[in-house]
Design goal:
Layout (H helix, E strand, L loop, with lengths): L2 H9 L2 H32 L5 H22 L8 H25 L5 H8 L2 H12 L7 H18 L10 H25 L6 H23 L8 H29 L1 H4 L6 H13 L6 H16 L25 H7 L32
Amino acid sequence: MSTTASRATRAAPASTATPSSAGWRLRFAVLALIWGFSFLFIKVGTEGFAPLQVTLGRVACGAAVLLAVLVVKRQRLPRSVRTWAHLAVAALFLNALPFSLFAFAELTIPSTLAGICNATSPLWGMVLSVVALSEDRPTRRRVAGLGVGFLGVLTVLGAWQGFTDTDLTGTAMALGASLCYPIGWIYVRRTLGGAQDSHLSVSSAQLLLATAQLAVVTPLFTSAPTSFPLWPVLSVIALGALGTGLAFLLQYGLVAEIGPTTAQMVTYFIPVIATAAGVVLLGEQLSWNTPVGALIVLAGAALTQSKPRRSAPSPVVASGPGPSTPPLHAREQADAVASPAELPDAPQSGALALLPDAAPAVGTSKEH
C-alpha cells in the first residue's frame, strides 16, 4: 500500500483493523496448507495414474475453477492472437512441464524431497534474472544467498555420503521443475508486461492451453486408465481444484490486501508443511540432514530475494494469481512488472502468468 494508505491504516481504530488482520492470516494459513499438501496429492495421484495423467487432471480441474470464476465475474478470455501465442509458452514452462516433472520425480523420490526442491526456485530465479534481465544486478548478499542455497541442496541430498540414499534422476527432475518457473516468469515479463487483459483472464487462458497441450501429449505416451481408485482420483481433483484453482484466487486476494512482500512469505512454509505431511500421512522416512538442509535452502532463497533499501517510495504491482480491476495502461503496466526475484513464488499454483492489474502501491522498503 502507499505511504498515505499506511498512515491511514495506523490511524484506524483497532476494532476495524483486527478483523481484517485475522482474515488474511487465516487465508494465508489455508494457502500454505494447500500448497504444502500438493506434493502429497501428487504422490497419492501417481499411485493410481501415470504422471502425465495426474498432470492433465490437475490442470483441467484448475482451469475449470478459474473459468467458473471468470463466468461469474463476466470477464472474457483474451482476444489477441499474440497474447494466446505467448501464453502457450507460459503454459508450457509454468504448468505442463514443471507439473509433469514433479509427478515423474515422485515416482522415485519422497514427497518431502520434492517439496524441498520446489523451494529452490528463487535460487534459479536469481541466476536466470542476472543472465536474462540486464537491469537486475546481483548484490553480494544475493550471491551469498545463492551459495547458501546450493549448500542447503547438498545437505538435503547428503553429498558427504555420495548421494547413495537419493535417486538422482528423480531429484534432477524435481530441481528441473523448479527451474521451469523462473524461465516462465522471465518470458512472461519480456512478452506480456503490457497486456491489457485481466490477470484472471490470461491465467484462465494459460491453464486452458496447458490442458490442451497435455491432452495431446498424454495419449501418445500413456494408455487409458483401467480403473479409477478413489484416493488417487480425489488427490488429482484436490491438486487441481485447490492447489491450482482456489490457491490462485487466495494468493491474488492476499497480494491485493497485504502486498507482495508479505504474501511472498507463504513460500517458506510450503516445504515445512510438505515435509510434515509426507512423514505423518505417508510414513516417509526423514533423516536429520533433510530438515536441516531445507532450512539452509530457505535461508539462501530469502537472501537471493533481498533488495537494497530504497530511499523514495516506488509503486510495485503485486504478483500472484487473481481477479481483476481496471487495467493499467500498457506502458504503466510494463514498467510495474516485478522481476522474478520480486515475485511471490507460488509454483504449485502454476497460474503466475501476469501480475494483477491494479494492486495497491507499496511505499515501504522492499527488503525481503
